From TrEMBL:
GTP 2 binds at residues 205-212, 252-256, 317-320. SMART domains: AAA. The keyword ATP-binding does not apply. Keywords: GTP-binding, Nucleotide-binding, Repeat, Ribosome biogenesis. It comes from the Bacteria. GTP 1 binds at residues 30-37, 77-81, 139-142. PROSITE patterns: G_ENGA (PS51712). This is GTPase Der. InterPro entries: AAA+_ATPase, G_ENGA, GTP-bd, GTPase_Der, KH_dom-like, KH_dom-like_a/b, P-loop_NTPase, Small_GTP-bd. Associates with the 50S ribosomal subunit. The gene is der.
Length: 455
């Protein structure tokens, strides 16, 4: 029924828009200089890319949300890759491999003016092996005369080359139409195997925080059940580990154990790896070295997991090395530097001594419970009614915007839509979120709140 001036279609539309599950992932791969970044910027709109360009953070951002023809998806930008010490083939292959692993579909960009190179051929082999849907982008076709160049790329055996000028926008619409056809509605990696299978954990954190030590600790003390081999020629990527009587899947453990050290682009490589692991997981256990000052890199990893909408546990490692003074400063740092995840369960562990390992599983379970929680509409509205009565929105311009009602549109993570009589200020939204968390114990999960204003 129509409520408080909203019509039914409005309400249903808002709930559907807010309730979308995790988005499918599209990776853009290819050699350096073929135009990947230009293409990504064109797809997401240059504005967002520029906004994210904080000094020193420029190339760490690897995933963006994008939309085409009303469908939303995540875009993994591999344009930040630079040739490293291993040479161009190795670096492009490694980069592409990670991106492909995390993706539901791939746009493979080739410079049509140059034609297919040996490196391109190497990427094609990776794409074949991965078996993911591929859209071939023949870039730098700025005019009609370039179309012939594009047609040579049929020879790659990836189907129709889509002639595109990422720079001018020519052909990008047609190519994106093809992308949407190739892209599944929901990410297969996340939900395809979810039902009944083990819960998926991404163990993430910057280099040297102790990820591989922790993994070894939990895998040794408890039985390693199986090593799953993905494909025949690859390292095991996911590991099943029994903890607290439950089997968990630690995703992307090869990335932790392999410890590839590259000089150039190493941070970027780590970011891509982290993004890939987070995409595949339901819960991110973020490891932080408690003996060192919390860094921007730690915060970026936290942000990545929050933005991906995963359940989150913070594990402060190397607790065995902390003296009283460090413990004091750590608490202050957590308050200021990790305020965005003040709601995340926290464990103070030592991968070396095994301290508090047994607290990890309960924290993970708590986070997953919050992540999947659903608040019945009746209870939500009783809570909102009381909240609004006790703490009304401040009056603005003689009017008092009011939250009229709300509903939970989705879970994993929880997503809410609130319907209001006017614009709800940021501060008030934050206040509502805080109270929602308190009332319904959304521990360990990001929550999304969107507000629909009555026209
Ligand atoms: P990436 O290394 O693959 O991310 O490549 P970039 O996006 O940085 O592009 C490399 C260079 O190619 C830049 O100078 C771009 O301006 C140029 N470029 C990208 N797309 C096009 C295009 O469609 N046409 C032309 N003529 N140049 C392009
Ligand atoms: P990763 O790069 O995150 O996988 O980190 P590693 O597991 O390789 O650990 C980096 C270094 O920190 C190694 O020298 C470890 O021995 C050390 N380390 C890891 N966990 C602990 C811990 O709990 N206490 C102490 N004192 N050292 C640790």
């Amino acid at each position: 029924a129509a409520e408080e001036g909203f019509d039914v279609e409005d309400i249903e539309g808002a709930i559907e828009a807010a309730g979308h599950g995790p988005l499918p992932v599209l990776a853009v791969v290819g050699r350096p200089n073929v135009g990947k970044s230009t293409l990504v910027n064109r797809i997401i709109g240059r504005r967002e890319a520029v906004v994210e360009d904080k000094p020193g953070v420029t190339r760490d951002r690897v995933t963006y949300e994008a939309e085409w023809a009303g469908r939303r998806f995540k875009l993994v930008d591999t344009g930040g890759w630079e040739q490293d010490v291993l040479g161009i083939d190795a670096s492009v292959a490694a980069q592409a491999e990670y991106a492909i692993e995390a993706a539901d579909a791939v746009v493979f960009v080739v410079d049509a003016k140059v034609g297919a190179t040996d490196t391109d051929e190497a990427v094609v082999r990776l794409l074949r092996k991965a078996g993911k849907p591929v859209v071939l982008c023949a870039n730098k076709v700025d005019g009609m005369s370039g179309e012939a160049d594009a047609s040579y790329l049929w020879a790659l055996g990836l189907g129709e080359p889509h002639p595109v000028s990422a720079l001018h926008g020519r052909g990008t619409g047609d190519m994106l139409d093809a992308v949407l056809e190739a892209l599944p509605e929901a990410p297969a990696q996340t939900f395809g195997t979810a039902i009944g299978g083990p819960r998926r954990i991404a163990l993430i954190g910057r280099p040297n925080v102790g990820k591989s030590s922790l993994l070894n600790k939990v895998a040794n003390e408890d039985r390693v059940v199986v090593n799953e081999v993905a494909g025949t020629t690859r390292d095991p990527v996911d590991e099943l580990i029994e903890l607290g009587g439950v089997t968990w899947k630690f995703v992307d453990t090869a990335g932790i154990r392999k410890r590839v050290h590259l000089q150039q682009g190493a941070d970027y490589y780590a970011s891509l790896r982290t993004a890939a692991a987070v995409e595949k997981a339901e819960v991110a256990v973020i490891l932080i070295d408690a003996s060192e000052t919390i860094s921007i890199q730690d915060q970026r990893i936290v942000t990545m997991a929050v933005e991906a909408g995963r359940a989150i546990v913070l594990a402060f490692n190397k607790w065995d090395t902390l003296d009283e003074e460090r413990r004091y400063y750590l608490e202050r740092e957590i308050e200021t530097e990790l305020a965005q995840v003040a709601w995340a369960p926290r464990v103070n562990v030592s991968a070396r001594t095994g301290r508090h390992m047994e607290k990890l599983v309960p924290a993970i379970e708590t986070a997953l419970e919050g992540w999947e929680a659903r608040v019945p509409t009746g209870r939500l509205n009783a809570f909102l009614g009381e909240l609004v009565a006790a703490h009304p929105h401040p009056v603005r311009g003689g009017k008092q915007p009011r939250i009229l009602f709300g509903t939970q549109a989705g879970t994993k993570p929880p997503r809410f839509v609130l319907f209001s009589s006017g614009f709800i200020e940021h501060g008030y939204r934050r206040f509502v979120e805080r109270r929602l968390r308190e009332e319904f114990t959304f521990e360990g999960t990001p929550i999304h709140i969107s507000v629909r204003v009555r026209e």
